[in-house]
Design a protein that fits this description.
The protein has 243 residues and is α/β, with parallel strands linked by helices. It is 39% helix and 10% strand. Strands 3-2-1-4-5 form a five-stranded parallel sheet, with helices on both faces. The chain starts with a helix and ends in a 12-residue tail after the last helix. The structure holds zinc ion. Zinc ion binds next to helix 8.
Length: 243
């Protein structure tokens, strides 16, 4: 799908084409899966600058950091003036309780980072997002998967490709919904760059897997986030317990 920026540079040569622009924009309706973290916040900024109409979908799946994420989701959606913000409760997922993201007593750090995997979580979320996008006849689902530094297989490029095929074969009302994963070949550095390009207020993001007052600085998300800010020589605007 052509992007807004490409269109604007193209339309720059044809300044009188307002009607055409309007028609073009009508093709652009996206649903952004938002978690309140750095990656999905960057993708929300990207979506706002590339689609005419953006909705968000946020999941309460029993994660222990839910209320911290929810505050960030609210700030981010207010910042970008998003009107349609879906919050979907799927608390039963935490009943399949093997993940450290559910258990308040499990402190996630380098020693046990594989415990952050939630069985089939991203497939469940993408399925629900697809159902909503299809019912609203949206063109795209935007997801912040970073294939370059994933621990969990459901963040990988192969997973996104497979799910795209599933959408093509499993939808009926709108069969051409695309999954847009702008960070799929990137990592946290790419994520910061995308967020900066799109003026995302990164002070309103929560990436940490542990439910403590400030980000822990020790879980895989905190470590990769801090490393990335160090690589790009910028200060992370959020507070950490330990760095
Ligand atoms: Zn952390």
């Amino acid at each position: 799908m052509p992007k807004r920026k490409d269109f604007d540079s193209w339309v720059g040569c044809r300044m009188k084409s307002g009607e055409l622009k309007e028609r073009f924009d009508m093709l652009n309706k996206a649903l952004c899966i938002l978690s309140g973290g750095l990656d999905s916040a960057a993708c929300l900024g990207w979506a706002v600058n590339n689609y005419n109409e953006v909705s968000t979908i946020f999941f309460n799946y029993g994660q222990k950091t839910y209320s911290r994420e929810a505050k960030c989701v609210k700030k981010l959606t207010q910042h970008f003036e998003i009107k349609d913000n879906q919050v979907i409760d799927i608390p039963w997922l935490s009943g399949f309780g093997v993940s450290g993201l559910f258990n308040q007593d499990t402190f996630l750090d380098e020693s046990n980072e594989k415990n952050e995997y939630v069985p089939f979580r991203n497939s469940i979320m993408l399925s629900i997002a697809t159902a909503y996008a299809e019912s609203e006849k949206m063109d795209a689902i935007v997801i912040g998967s970073t294939g370059g530094d994933h621990i969990c297989p459901d963040n990988s490029p192969d997973f996104i490709t497979a799910f795209q095929e599933l959408i093509k074969n499993g939808t009926m009302i709108k069969t051409d919904i695309t999954i847009e994963a702008p960070l799929i070949n990137g990592d946290k550095v790419t994520s910061i760059e995308l967020a900066t390009e799109n003026n995302v207020p990164l002070q309103h993001t929560w990436s940490c897997h542990n439910n403590i007052e400030f980000a822990c600085g020790q879980c895989s998300n905190c470590r990769s986030r801090l490393d990335a800010f160090s690589i790009v020589s910028k200060d992370d605007p959020i507070k950490y317990e330990r760095q």
